[in-house]
Amino acid sequence: MLLREDVWYMYPYQQDIHHFPYPAYSCMPRSYYESPYYEGGWFWNNGTLKSDESYRLPTEQQLTFVLVHGSWADAHFWDGVAEVLRSQGHIVYTPEYAGHGNDPNKNVTHAMITKSVVDFITRHNLHNIVLVGHSFGGSVIQKVAEQIPDRIKRLVFWDAFVLKDGESVADELPPQTRQGFEQLRASSKDDTIMLPFTLFRDLFVNTATLEEARWMYTSVTPEPAGPLFEKLDLKVFYELPIPKGYVYFYQDGVLPQGEGFGWNPHMSTRLGQFRLIVGDGDHFTDTRTRPGMVAQKIYEAGRD
Known about the structure:
By secondary structure, the protein is of the alpha/beta class. The chain is built from nine helices and nine strands. A seven-stranded parallel β-sheet has the order 1-3-2-4-5-8-9, with helices on both faces. Strands 6-7 form a two-stranded antiparallel sheet. The chain is globular. About 50% of the residues are buried.
């Protein structure tokens, strides 16, 4: 049995670590955040950091963003980024989806997660939106787009899965990683997967300080395993004419780059014609340490 603290062995590669300043930053207004379960927040809601004022640049047009988080996160993942975008005149929504936040039911399906986002968008009568998916959220916005394409102005994937028809997220993981996740799933009592700290620190928050990584890890919760292994019918998605963008952070080590894996170009080129925006950052840290930078990259991918 592969122990949780031994999962790091599946990842023989390392990334360089860059440090950023950490002054205090206040939380977002709750008016655009909606969850039927959550009263608190993930680690972004009470310590998002104002360390990148230079990225608060004038915008060319005002947009409506719907930001969809990924695995081992909840809607508060976007707090700092959403606040920056709002300060620039954009309208921003950060829906929570089933099985996350304080939702006690972890026995969810990918369809239930997708329905959470679709219902949020239709309930708020949103149109002409830039729908953004991060990580696992990429597979979510693929399915959301199939159901409500007429409401979407552009799709933006940020270091996100772009699955082929008939694939699951797990199909895109390196074999050793998938095996480790399967063992962690089997050892859980509620069909979830909890990230070992060593994996989280090295791959998800590799540009953070050790102190920051430990603090962020205290708020990571087990991820429902089922949706990660569900194979998705995406035939409709690949017929949609919706414009698309891909944001790629080249220090993101969650997936190994090259040899049939990775975010860009492995995932991104599946979109056909798309706009590529690149940045210097990792998978999680920059939404907290440099929310202005992340906001600017998402804006560049989503604007006309």
